[in-house]
Design a protein that fits this description.
nucleotide-binding, binds adenosine-5'-triphosphate, ABC transporter transmembrane region fold, six-stranded mixed sheet, alpha/beta, ABC1_TM_sf, ABC-type oligopeptide transporter activity, elongated
C-alpha cells in the first residue's frame, strides 16, 4: 500500500468526501446506455438469459440442502439419486442459459464498440481545423483504438459479470434469509465492513486509470509522430535520442500501470481476506446453531453455499468496480470528443450558390487571427476580387498570410471581420459541402493516401468511371509513369506515397483536382525544387488544370507569376501592392525586391 493510500484510508475527512464522490465517478458510463439501448431485443435476451442462469445457479444449493437432510442425514440413497438428477437437470438449464448470455452480451459489446468507434471517427472528421491545431493526431487515434478497446472488454464481460454478481448477491441473500434469518443478520453486519473499503478504494483506482490511459495516449502520439517523420529522424541521426525519449515515456507509463495494478491487487486481496474472515465467523456461528437445534445440517450446508456464492459475487463486484473505473475514464475521454461541438457548421437557412458556377471570389475588409478575435492579427483589412477564369497570384514573405487566405476561403476558419464571397454569396450562408465542392485544392505537399493510384485520383469523386480517371491522369501527365508500373492504376502506394517521387506526387494531386472538375482552383505551389524535367511536367500538368478555371495561387514559380492577371503582394497580413508582374517590377517597390530575391536562380537559368 502506498503512503497516499494509507493516508486516504485513515483520513476520515477524505473518506467521507471520497465516498460522496464515488457514484459520480461512474457517471460517464451513462453515456454508453444510449448505445446499448439501440438494441432492445438483444438486451432483453441478455437479461433473460442472465436471470435464468443466475436463478438456476441459486436453485442448486437449495437442492443440495435437501440432498443432505433427506439423503445423507436420513441415509436414503434413493433420495440422493433423485436430488442428483435434479441437480443435473438444473445444470443443463444453467449451462444453456450461461452460454446464451455470454454470446448475447459479447455480441452487444462488439456492436456498441463498433457504433462508438464509428460515431467518434465521424465526429472527428466534422470538427474544424482549429480543433486539430490544438490536439495531437496520435492522441486522438489512441483514443479511437485504446479507449474503445477498453470499453469493448467492459461491455462484453464486466457489465455481464456485474449484473450477474448483483443478481447472485440479491438472490443468495434472499435465500439466506429464507434459510436462516439469524445467520443472515450476522452476515449483513459483516457486509459493510467489506463494502466500505471497497468503495473508497475504487475511487482511487479511477484517477489512476485515467492517468495510465493519458500516459498511453502520449506514448502513442509520440510513436505516430516519430514513425511518420522517420526520414527526418534518420537524417538528423536522432534515432537514439528519440528512442530514449520514448523509453522514458514508456517507463513512466509502465510505472503508472504498475501502481494501478498494485492498487487493484490490494483491492482484490482485501476483499478476499475480509470475505474469508467473515466466512470463518459464519461457520462458527452456524455450528452453534446446529448444535442447539435451531437449523438442520442441510440448512447450514445450504446457507454456507449461498454465503460463499454471495462472497464470490462480492469479490467479482470489487474486480468489476476496478474495471468499470477504467472504462469510465475511457468513456469520459471519448465523450469529450463527442461533446465537442463543431464551431464551423452549415447555416440554418443555406443560400444556394448559382449554377452554372460563376467562379468569382471576393474578399472585403477581412480581418483574421488564429487566437482570440483581435489578438495577433494574421490578416488585416484584406480586400480583393478574382473574376471568372482569372488567375490571381499571392506572393509575399514567409508568414505573411498566404496559406491563411486559402484556408479562410475554404472556411477552415471563420473571419473575425469582413466578408468572403464566392459567386457573390457570403460563404457563411452556404452549405459547407456545397462551398467546398466549388474548389479544387492542390496542396504544397500533396497527401497520398494508402491505396491504389486509381483510388487516389478518385478521392474527390469516388464513383468516377475508370475512363474518367485515365483522362484526368493523362491531362496531369500521370498516365505515362503509371502505365510503366507493374499493376498500373491498381498499384498500391504507401501511407504517404513513399514509392512516388516528389514530382509524381504533385502530378497525382493535380490529376485528383482535374477529376474533381471544380470551377475554382486553389493552388499552393511547392517551394521544394524539382529537377528541370520534373518541373516542366508539373508546370504542363498545372496548365491543363488551370484551363478555364478561376485560379488563386500561392506562387513560387516565375512562370505562374508572369501569367497571372493580378499579383497580390502580402506583407505582415496586409496587401501592400497589386498589379501585373511587369507593372510591379516597373514600380520597383517591395515586389521588385522580392522578385529579385525569389527568382534570381530561375532567371539565371
Ligand atoms: N494553425 C495556426 N495556428 C496559429 N497560427 C498560425 C497557424 N497557421 C499559421 N499561423 C500563423 O499565421 C501567420 C501566417 O501564416 P501563413 O501560413 O498564412 O503564412 P504564409 O504566407 O502562407 O507563409 P509560408 O509562405 O511560410 O507558408 C504566421 O505568423 C503563422 O505563424
Amino acid at each position: 500500500m502506498t503512503d497516499q493510500a494509507v493516508s486516504a484510508a485513515t483520513d476520515p475527512e477524505k473518506i467521507v468526501s471520497e465516498v460522496k464522490a464515488a457514484p459520480r465517478q461512474l457517471q460517464p458510463l451513462r453515456r454508453l446506455f444510449p448505445f446499448l439501448l439501440r438494441y432492445p431485443l438483444r438486451l432483453a435476451l441478455t437479461v433473460l438469459f442472465l436471470l435464468v442462469s443466475a436463478i438456476s445457479s441459486l436453485a442448486i444449493p437449495a437442492v443440495l440442502g435437501g440432498a443432505i437432510d433427506e439423503g445423507f442425514v436420513a441415509q436414503n440413497l434413493d433420495n440422493v439419486g433423485r436430488y442428483g438428477w435434479l441437480i443435473i437437470g438444473i445444470s443443463v438449464i444453467m449451462a444453456v442459459a450461461s452460454g446464451a448470455r455470454f454470446y448475447f452480451i459479447s455480441v452487444i459489446g462488439e456492436r456498441v464498440v463498433a457504433d462508438l468507434r464509428q460515431a467518434v471517427f465521424a465526429h472527428l472528421l466534422q470538427l474544424e481545423t482549429r480543433y486539430f491545431d490544438t490536439h495531437r493526431v496520435g492522441e486522438l487515434t489512441s483514443r479511437l483504438n485504446g479507449d474503445v478497446t477498453v470499453i469493448r472488454g467492459a461491455v462484453g464481460s464486466s457489465f455481464s459479470l456485474a449484473l450477474r454478481s448483483l443478481v447472485t448477491i440479491i438472490g443468495a441473500l434472499t435465500m439466506m434469509i429464507l434459510t436462516s434469518p439469524v445467520l443472515t443478520i450476522a452476515v449483513v453486519v459483516a457486509l459493510p465492513a467489506i463494502l466500505f473499503p471497497v468503495m473508497i478504494y475504487a475511487r482511487r483506482l479511477r484517477g489512476m486509470s485515467r492517468r495510465t490511459q493519458d500516459a498511453l495516449a502520449d506514448l502513442s502520439a509520440m510513436a505516430t509522430e516519430m514513425l511518420g517523420a522517420n526520414r527526418t529522424v534518420k537524417s538528423f541521426t536522432q534515432e537514439h535520442v528519440q528512442a530514449a525519449h520514448y523509453d522514458t515515456s514508456s517507463e513512466a507509463s509502465y510505472r503508472a500501470e504498475v501502481k494501478r495494478l498494485g492498487a487493484r491487487a490490494f483491492l482484490v486481496g482485501m476483499v478476499i481476506f475480509l470475505g474469508t474472515a467473515a466466512l470463518v465467523g459464519l461457520v462458527w456461528w452456524g455450528a452453534r446453531a446446529v448444535f442447539d437445534g435451531s437449523v438442520t445440517a442441510g440448512q447450514l450446508g445450504q446457507f454456507l453455499v449461498y454465503a460463499l456464492m454471495a462472497s464470490g459475487a462480492l469479490t467479482n463486484v470489487s474486480e468489476v468496480l476496478g474495471t468499470l473505473q477504467t472504462v469510465s475514464g475511457a468513456t469520459e475521454r471519448l465523450t469529450e470528443i463527442l461533446d465537442t461541438k463543431p464551431e464551423i457548421v452549415d447555416p440554418a437557412r443555406p443560400v444556394a450558390l448559382p449554377t452554372p458556377p460563376l467562379g468569382t471570389v471576393t474578399f472585403t475588409g477581412v480581418n483574421f487571427s488564429y487566437g482570440e478575435a483581435g489578438s495577433d492579427k494574421v490578416l488585416t483589412n484584406v480586400s480583393f476580387s478574382v473574376g471568372k477564369g482569372e488567375t490571381v497570384a499571392l506572393v509575399g514573405p514567409s508568414g505573411s498570410g498566404k496559406s491563411t487566405t486559402l484556408s479562410l476561403l475554404q472556411r477552415f476558419y471563420d473571419v473575425d471581420a469582413g466578408t468572403i464571397a464566392v459567386d457573390g454569396v457570403d460563404i457563411r450562408d452556404v452549405k459547407l459541402s456545397e462551398l467546398r465542392q466549388r474548389f479544387a485544392y492542390v496542396e504544397q505537399e500533396p497527401i497520398i493516401f494508402a491505396g491504389t493510384i486509381a483510388d487516389n485520383i478518385r478521392f474527390g469523386k469516388p464513383d468516377a468511371a475508370m475512363d474518367e480517371v485515365i483522362a484526368a491522369a493523362k491531362a496531369a501527365l500521370v498516365d505515362d509513369f503509371v502505365t510503366d508500373l507493374p499493376a498500373g492504376y491498381d498499384t498500391v502506394v504507401g501511407e504517404r506515397g513513399v514509392m512516388l517521387s516528389g514530382g509524381q506526387k504533385q502530378r497525382l494531386a493535380i490529376a485528383r483536382a482535374i477529376l474533381k472538375n471544380a470551377p475554382i482552383l486553389l493552388l499552393d505551389e511547392a517551394t521544394s525544387a524539382l529537377d528541370a524535367q520534373s518541373e516542366r511536367l508539373v508546370q504542363l500538368a498545372l496548365e491543363h488544370l488551370m484551363e478555364g478555371r478561376t485560379t488563386l495561387v500561392i506562387a513560387h514559380r516565375l512562370a505562374t507569376i508572369r501569367d497571372a492577371n493580378t499579383i497580390l503582394v502580402l506583407d505582415g497580413g496586409e496587401i501592400i501592392d497589386h498589379g501585373t508582374h511587369d507593372q510591379l517590377v516597373a514600380k520597383g517597390g517591395r515586389y521588385a525586391d522580392l522578385a529579385k530575391l525569389q527568382f534570381r536562380t530561375a532567371e539565371a537559368v
